[in-house]
Structure to design on (230 residues):
């Protein structure tokens, strides 16, 4: 990991299109501003990791289990 | 077109129904195309989000209003900019469900709904950093109570 020291008001560029600015510093909290293209996702790391984990667990579903919940045999059709 | 899926075998899908997820979804960032599938049958709160460019991937979706009738999507505009939403009524909102072996432990992710803009067939899983919805909301009790009906 590259570690840089910035003061309030200073920025970092990642590639040509991503900018991270230190907007404010209050005690042990840093307020960051981020400029990035629309197709680049930006998330708080711990939340993002949690969502990733949940999605991976969700992907382990077996269709039979869903049929059990609904009490009917699965028939799949393409939704409009 | 035909899709050879892991969960459902070979199925027929309408290419016009393919939804573009420009960022994929967390955990599956490289899967960019999905279709919505549903079981034939009325009062069914579940849908499937089936990967098209990754046919091993299928996720169960639930309408969060079955769980929380007053569910509201509250996200920054920048989170949904990529969906280019012109009409909020054309946006479908779903929660991804985790269905473990023990069905009573089924949960839905209310904190990170999947939004699908049906006007341009673009989708994204957004994260509601504000608010106190849970990533793992236990729903079996609610479903039994409402009998799967809204």
């Amino acid at each position: 990991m590259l570690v840089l020291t910035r003061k309030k008001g200073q920025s970092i560029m990642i590639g040509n299109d991503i900018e991270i600015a230190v907007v404010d510093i209050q005690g042990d909290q840093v307020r960051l501003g981020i400029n990035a293209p629309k197709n680049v996702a930006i998330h708080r790391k711990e939340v993002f990791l949690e969502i990733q984990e949940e999605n991976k667990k969700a992907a382990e579903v077996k269709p039979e289990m869903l049929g059990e919940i609904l009490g009917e045999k699965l028939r799949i059709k393409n939704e409009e | 077109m035909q899709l050879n899926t892991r969960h459902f075998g070979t199925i027929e899908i309408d290419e016009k129904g393919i939804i573009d997820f420009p960022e994929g979804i967390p955990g599956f960032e490289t899967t960019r195309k999905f279709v919505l599938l549903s079981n034939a049958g009325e009062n069914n709160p579940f849908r499937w989000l089936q990967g098209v460019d990754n046919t091993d991937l299928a996720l169960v979706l639930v309408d969060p209003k079955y769980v929380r009738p007053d569910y509201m999507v509250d996200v920054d505009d920048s989170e949904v900019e990529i969906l280019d939403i012109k009409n909020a009524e054309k946006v479908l909102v779903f929660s991804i469900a985790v269905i473990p072996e023990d069905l009573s432990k089924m949960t839905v992710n209310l904190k990170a709904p999947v939004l699908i803009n049906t006007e341009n067939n673009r989708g994204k899983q957004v994260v509601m950093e504000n608010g106190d919805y849970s990533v793992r909301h236990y729903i079996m009790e609610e479903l039994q109570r409402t009998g799967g009906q809204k």
Observations:
- The longest strand of chain A covers residues 18-26.
- Residues 72-80 of chain A have pLDDT under 50 and may be disordered.
- DSSP finds two helices and four strands in chain A.
- The beta strands of chain A are 11-14, 18-26, 29-35, 76-78.
